[in-house]
Write a structure and sequence with these properties.
The complex is a heterodimer of chains A (689) and B (344). By secondary structure, chain A is an alpha+beta fold. Chain A has 5 domains: 67 residues, Phenylalanyl-tRNA Synthetase, Chain B, domain 1, CATH 3.30.56; 205 residues, 3-Layer(bba) Sandwich (Phenylalanyl-tRNA Synthetase, Chain B, domain 3); 69 residues, Phenylalanyl-tRNA Synthetase, Chain B, domain 1 (2-Layer Sandwich), CATH 3.30.56; 202 residues, BirA Bifunctional Protein, domain 2 (2-Layer Sandwich), CATH 3.30.930; 89 residues, Alpha-Beta Plaits (2-Layer Sandwich), CATH 3.30.70.380. Chain A has 20 helices and 31 strands. In chain A, strands 18, 21, 22, 23, 24, 25, 26 and 27 form an 8-stranded mixed β-sheet that branches. In chain A, strand 16 and strand 17 form a beta hairpin. In chain A, helix 3 runs antiparallel to helix 11, helix 11 crosses helix 12 and helix 19 crosses helix 20. The longest helix of chain A has 19 residues. Chain B has 344 residues and is an alpha+beta fold. Chain B folds into 2 domains: 82 residues; 235 residues, BirA Bifunctional Protein, domain 2 (2-Layer Sandwich). In chain B, 39% of the residues lie in helices and 18% in strands. Chain B has 11 helices and 9 strands. In chain B, the strands form 2 sheets. In chain B, strands 1-4-5-9-8-7-6 form a 7-stranded mixed β-sheet, with helices on both faces. A two-stranded antiparallel ribbon of chain B has the order 2-3. In chain B, helix 5 packs across helix 10. The two termini of chain B are 76 Å apart. The chains are: A alpha+beta (689), B alpha+beta (344). At the A-B interface, helix 2, helix 7, helix 10, helix 12 and helix 13 of A face helix 5, strand 1, strand 4, strand 5 and helix 8 of B.
Amino acid sequence: MRINLRFLKQFIDVEMPVVETKELLASLGIEVAEVHGCDNSTAFTVEITPNRPDWLSHLGIAREIHARLPDLPLVLPNSLDPALAVGEGAGSVDIQIESVSDCRRYSGCEIHGIEPSASPAEIGALLESLGLRPINQIVDASNMVLMAMGHPLHMFDLDCLEGKQIRVRRARPGERLRLLDEREVELETEDIVIADARRPVALAGIMGGVESGITNRTRRVFVESAWFDPVRIRRTARRLGLQTDASYRFERGTDITATPGAIVMALAYLRAWSDKPVVSSGYHDEYPGLFLATTVQMPADYPSRYTGVEIPRSEAAAILERLGFQVDSIDKKLWTVTVPSFRVDITCKQDLVEEITRIYGYNRIPASMPRTVNLSFSPNAKRNLRLKAGRHLIANGYFQALNYSFQSLEDNLLMAGAESTHTDFIGLRNPLGKEYAVLRNSLVPGLLRATAHNANHGALTVKLFETGKRFSRCSGSDGCEEEALAVSAWGEHEPLSWRNSKVEDIDFFVFRGEMEAFLLGLSVEFHLEQRDFPWLQPGCSFAIQIHQQPAGWMGCLKTETVQAAGLDKTVSAMEIGLSSLLRKRKEQRFAQWNRFPMVKRDLSVYIPAGVSFSDLEKAIEAHRPEELESYHLFDCYRDRTDSGGERISMAMSFYYRHAHQTLTGERVNRIHTVLVNNLVATLKLELRT
Amino acid sequence: MSRELSHEIDELIQVFKAEVEQVQSQQQHRGLKEKYFSRRKGICPLLMQRLRDIPPKEKAEAGRLINRFKQMVEQSLDEVFTRLEPDRRKPGIDWTLPPVSHAPGAPHLIERTRTELEDIFIQMGYEVAEGPEMESEYNNFTALNIPAHHPARDEQDTFFIQDIDDMVLRTHTSPVQIRYMKSKQPPFKAIFPGKVFRKDEPDATHTPVFHQIEGLLVDREINFSHLRGILEAFIRAFFGEDIKTRFRPGYFPFTEPSAEIDISCFLCFGQDAECRICKGTGWLEILGSGMVHPGVLMNCGIDPDLFSGFAFGMGVDRIALLRHGVPDLRMFFENDLRFLRQFR
């Protein structure tokens, strides 16, 4: 809304520099967003919070200033009896309200013998400074009333109202209305319309119809001044995408007692601007939803208690009265405060405290410290874990990424089985676009996107992680969300340097090593099991178990996916549910380390096709002698058999130690030979000599 | 025999004296010490070994000779040592060559800021509670005094979930306050950090996803001056001791009275009419706050006649943007290493 400072002076004679006026308004809760014009006709664009429709007028703003600066009197508009203002003479219009909840009051009158012409120049200029277009004195008068006291009026061409009827009713199925802006709208039974004997002539509280609007041919006017149900006005306005000065006020709540005064003011403007007498008649006030003032009970000491500063009762009461409230008796322990009709936002004693404090001055409230201690307290284990995980990854060269919680359907499909469709995911009803259509089922597509972005901008290594929510459909139609940690790595492992003349890329083994160190650093027990996930390269695809339960996956993203992202090197990635990292591990107990010497024996074998290192590991586990402490693969290469076939050679060291004695060489040889024979027999290994 | 030995030792003394004069570095000193005292091949241990072959009656004399020599060598090596400058370098290796690089990554600036903000409240004894990003309309709006068709809903353009009735992406973290209040007995104090969503096309000053930290304290006899006390303490801790604060009336459906809190501009201190961040006003809007509306307390099963409290909220992205001079909010979501690397 705009306020013209010169027009404001008609309601309160405030005289101060623009900067100070801005500060004054801000301290009252009225934010000045923009200043227009020069000193002579300065106007402010003010941002009015939705709870204060009474501030959508110059009078409302003036009232606030008066409350803060009581020495400046508030000039109220003429409160003439509308019947007197309108004058004698019965009207020809028959007004009926169908439902009192839709329209609690409908006042109106007729104006005769008026010819539309331009308003005085200074009125035109004033309206323009308020962002309104001057049209003719009839329309301008209604706009002046709107700006002065905030009540929307509507002006009908009386001769276009068929049957001289005003019916405030719901629209009927199939009814249409061409509005003043020439838009034709289809009406629904939820909409309140003003109809004449035949058809809707206005969309109540929002916009009039073009057929009954004021034109140059208009000679007789019907003035509407009404109160409409805020929720209904808002629904219709939203549905039709129409926000007008009228609907903006009606949907926030207008002053039901103001309808006659608005008519009086409009007539006063028209008379003041016209050389000829303006004839009016037929004042009619259909008022089925009689106003009952709200009262609020408040202990007299409550404002002081609730603010923490001693505000004298007399001062509190005076503030309320300046704002239009009535306090029954200041001496009573419990005040009964009557709320003025224009304050639709006040319902409880806390509201009254805000009123008193606002005018008293927020910055006069001192600071003090509460002594509150939580009755029960639980540390946030997830936060601690997130920070700990982040620190570890960051120390190892990973950057934390941040992505939206939604992404494209294609991104979700990337991280799902081939048989998945959009119904497996949670979509947004009103997304910003296709690339943000569904809630993400995985954090990895975001990391992949970021990897490609950085690779395109010249990065040689991109190591990223993100923690955040991922979403899935669970139990049929419901949505579930879970916090996950995703890590990805692409590019060079160690850059070219004076020690390193050959650049190695981060391959799966490097990545897995880093991730295993990371998991160990978080003190979780984990286990990797080769298993195919649809988004990973077959084989280079592992399920991660943490504390014997499924936790996530690790592997290399499918080549097609990586290539589609424009990347030419492997992208290794891992994603795990954060809660799996929170699972309690068994309590750790001290164990005495072995003090006896260790003996090492090596084994070199050819592995037949189809046997993996993990098979070898399983076989070792199956035949593990108790003296075997650990083993270690120190060589692995491919070569050709004499017949030209391919074979894999592996060389391992086995470390033996006895718990209670020193092992003799002879004894170790015996143990080792048994193990080797078992391995050879189980896996058909061929010993290399 | 001993004469022979004595002669030999005399020669050794000459050699040693010449050698010790040459010593210029600790390195050389170590070498010389090694030559004379190395357990296996050192000259002195070897001399001692030869005592075995010396006839018994000459042994004592020979032993004395050797010992005297040993003491002399030791003493003069010690003397030389004290004169020496400490070792600077070992010849042959340039120790100033660059190390094997292990460049660390970095936390995201938003997360780093969020952690810093949280830490202040944690140290004031606040719990950190989190909640779902997908929320019911009830928790996100209705329970917070924002009924359907309330104009306040316009101010938070909302993403709705498809096919699940009455579910939205939360527009603020306030629904976590609702969940928290419903599950706890006052007194309590907690903060509620997290992602929030508003349907805004991304531009320099808007992103459809951003981050908030809200806070809440409920106890008996909590008043507006307590709100001021806590938030001013927080502002001093985070922005600095010399930062001024200003409280302005504001509006939130879930607090009454409500206050907007501005801090003095930490870039220009109100001295620059063209200031990039405060636009010359001298003030930065940083926090929304207020006394928890009695209706909200009641919605959560807390008796507003017994308890009162205050709540506040701030935008992490905005604070990070202002504090670090980031020109465009979208940069927070680009994950460009050139950006991320700056905030290690």
